[in-house]
Amino acid sequence: MKGGFALRTKTVVVTIVVVGIACIASAAGQAGRVSPHERVDAHIQGADVSITYGRPYMRGRVIMGALVPYGRVWCPGADEATTLTTSKPLRIGNLALNAGSYTLWMVPSADQWMLVVNSATGILHTEYSSRYDLGDVALRKRAVDPPVEQLTFTIENNPTGSGGVIAMVWETTAVSVPFSVVQ
What's the predicted TM-score (pTM) here? Predict the structure, then answer.
């Protein structure tokens, strides 16, 4: 009986140590990120829509046309690829998206930006493959002043009609695209 008590005590101590180490490792992994991660959520016409992304800072750098080169596919975020999730089908421009999750990519230029929706999920922001592209849509672009230090996404109701608007702003550039919920 005494040996059983000692074995249970050792098991409890080992379990506490393992759980403690796992918690510390998890916290250290998040603390070590340069870019914090965020999820924005909206409820638009019965659909739950969210975007999960890393939020890099300018940190004194020139972003558009330099860190983010023009004419190349770019993931707007850091670490894991930026993910759009919807509980209902959406239409973004000419793209019909079923309920589910997708990654968002952009092709910036000095004048015109494109949004690329991709079916590959659970990937890093450096693992883009065009073979999973569902299509692309032109984004509305405008200049902002003063510059926005941290990359920011929003999802809001469309102020000029039904559906919603997905918007991203960073540095002196804001881009957006309206979407509708397919009923």
Answer: 0.82
